[in-house]
């Protein structure tokens, strides 16, 4: 299930969007200001962000810039301001699309689907890099430095998820959903098993640990 983040300070609009998107099959998280939105983006992996421009504290331009500096997540900016200069500034700060209020929900939904399709197409032939890891997503091939590493299907899927969201905590629920496609339940240790398999392969020549456990939260790919 694709996970969307809505950063919107007006409760009526946020709830309207959340209800509609949930009915369309998306998982939705709502943050009511820029600081809460950035915190959510650090803690979870999102497929797309819907970002209001006029936010208390950090405005949408600042939030978009910080989100873009940390990831390539698609950003759709919402605003009541229709000036060309505002649209240009939003795009320059990292927004992928710009929608002026009031808008029809169907138009927002169409724009969301366009951005998600574009992201999937761009990811189809990526070569992902992190530290000494090089993951060719077209060939489904991993190299650690100059060493080629064989991965099973699920090992590959799990590592790709980590490498698409480096330095972000991935919860067990997110990992279950993205890698296995359903919830194994709280008693399953399958994630721990596959994380152990990956660590053994990535660290076979004494390389430093990159997949780290965040106690009580999940796992994160980061350099110590």
TrEMBL record:
Chain residues forming the annotated DNA-binding region: 125-223
Chain ranges of the OmpR/PhoB-type domain: 125-223
Keywords of the record: DNA-binding, Phosphoprotein, Transcription, Transcription regulation, Two-component regulatory system
Domain of life per record: Bacteria
Example GO biological process: regulation of DNA-templated transcription
Pfam family, one: Response_reg
Range of residues in the leader sequence: none
Residue numbers carrying 4-aspartylphosphate: 52
Gene3D superfamilies reported for this sequence: 3.40.50.2300, 6.10.250.690, Winged helix-like DNA-binding domain superfamily/Winged helix DNA-binding domain
Domain Response regulatory positions: 3-116
GO CC field: cytosol; protein-DNA complex
GO terms of molecular function: phosphorelay response regulator activity; transcription cis-regulatory region binding
Record's protein name: DNA-binding response regulator
